[in-house]
Amino acid sequence: MVVFRIRNVHKRKYSLVVCLCIVGFIMYRYLSVSASTGRRRMSRRVGLNANTSQFTLEGEPFRIIGGAIHYFRVPWAYWRDRLLKMKACGLNTVTTYVPWSLHQPQKELFNFQTQLDLEAFLNLAFELGMWVILCPGPYISSELDLGGLPSWLLRDDKMKLRTTYAGFSEAVNVYFNKLIPKLVPLQFKKGGPIIAVQVENAYGSFAKDDSYLSFIKEALQTRGMTELLLTSDSCDTLKSGSVNGVVRTLKLQKLNQRNIQDLNSLQPNSPTMIMDYWTGWYDAWGELHHILPPEDMVSTVREVLRRGMSVSLYMFHGGSSFGFMSGALADPTYKALVPSYDYDAPLSESGEYTPKYHLLRDLLSRYSNGEPFPDMPTLHYREAYEPAIMYQHLSLWDALSFTPEPFKSHRPVSMENLPVNSNNGQSYGYTLYETTITTGGLLKSGDNVRDRALIFVDKIYIGLFKRQNLELAIPDGQGKRTLSLLVENCGRVHQGRDLDKQHKGLVGDILLNNIPLRDFTIYSLDMKPGFIDSLHQAPWKTLSINPSFPGFFMGKLFVYGYPCDTFVKLPGWEKGVVFINGLNLGRYWSIGPQQALYLPGPFLNSGINQVIVFEEQEGDYKVQFEDMPDLGMAADIQ
């Protein structure tokens, strides 16, 4: 540190000297950083190579010991923490997927800021000494709604997703024109961290278009992606998911000698890599929490390493599917996924060390050539805050004036085809359909409700439509009455061959006494931050003993000092959505398995925090905050 002592000098001269010193110091720092960066980012001639039975990197033998972290599922304030914990476990490579649906929520709108600043995440990984395998899609699965594809693609009634159909390929080209130029400078041979790029994801299980993978490969290469290309498929779909000139890798949870032999027979004299070794599994509403015993995971990784193979753990750290990000299962029956993406991974949803982490770190230390691992970062403190008492209430009906202008339609219109969001349709949330009836009788959904609908007559709840409940009795009444259907998109399926059929809302006619209902007024309730913020101007009422449902409930969480991680628990509430300071934390549902939502400290303010709960049917009027997760009753993965 330089200290300047200037005495008896005119004030102007003093200012000039100080300015010159500051400018000189800044230039010194700039030149020093530039020189350092130049050394670190100098161009390399040879990247990751797979021309022998072992990978080489810059001509030297290299084994990938990697793990997956999704930047979009981790608060950006915690990116460094999670990557440091990965490095301290002995991993050398981070695998991450790129969600098209989040980066291009509308045709004309792209988002690569803050939480979605992919370049910042990759640069941070590089700064911390990690290599990167990038999975840019366009389809990524990852248990996201529609597998990470944007829902506005479904506005084309002839759409054929994951094919070379013109409507899809043109949209991919527009997206890649924005995405890929951001990634090209971050490749290994240009001095960056990206050593390999995955071509699409698990296409072998879909395989509707023989030329599709070639199209994606060319789309990457013509835009400047020159690093090693990979495909990744399950054991029984390796052949149908491959493309010439691209290295095949495996997805699996149990190591089977036959699977390895099948892979090696398809590409002899090439490295063997498990691109996705599943360390756990995801959870669906109404099921149990899936776990894979730590000893099972470690024994498989041990065998992989003993055989000299490369591996990437899916997931190393799962994180959370905040908001309405979660996908769904279609087979054998429809089931929506929970917000937690803990995945029973080595690093928990909130970044805690698990028994898997410690066992894995011990195992990998034997393959470190005697080099010690970095110290394990200190864990973040978790807090059990005082409950937030709900003191104000706003009925759904009173909130409708804060939604976009309602749309009039003779027939039902699906979410995706509504003229909202600059004519990109509605992606997530709820849609309210209202029409007039003059009689009671039998209401039939004909399986046209996707996925769940609360039914009201003159704002009085009378029943529920879901996929297993297709009929409902409407009570008789006099004169004209308003029939309302509040339909929730619980999540589009993230995999399977029916991705094109994932329209939500009312996707066909609803019959009353076998006559189709007509002349609807349709409200879009996607519950974006702008809508939640606008509710400040709504006519909230002091919470009474018998509030109406569905409705919004408001309370306050007080945080003294530095905000800490916590878990939101809602005993006595039935089903709905939690918003903290306007951010959609995710769905809750009493059927479980998940019983608490992870609330990261960076989402909170020191002092007063606003808590809003949208509840469909029943509420307890207080929200609890605990210092421990609750993912529900667990069951071993079969």
Features:
638 residues, alpha+beta, TIM Barrel, Jelly Rolls, eight-stranded parallel beta barrel, six-stranded antiparallel beta sheet, 11 helices, 20% helix, globular, disordered N terminus
CATH architecture descriptor name of the largest domain: Alpha-Beta Barrel
CATH superfamily assignment of the largest domain? Glycosidases
User: Oligomeric form of this entry?
Assistant: single chain
Average pLDDT metric: 93
Number of helices: 11
What value does the Rg take, in angstroms? 27 Å
User: Which of globular, elongated, flat, extended, rod-shaped describes the shape?
Assistant: globular
Explain what this protein looks like in three dimensions.
By secondary structure, the protein is an alpha+beta fold. It has eleven helices and 37 strands. The strands form nine sheets. An eight-stranded parallel β-barrel has the order 4-5-6-7-8-9-10-12. A hairpin with a 2-residue loop joins strand 26 and strand 27 (515-516). Helix 8 (294-306) runs parallel beside helix 9 (355-365). The model is unreliable at 1-40 (pLDDT under 50).
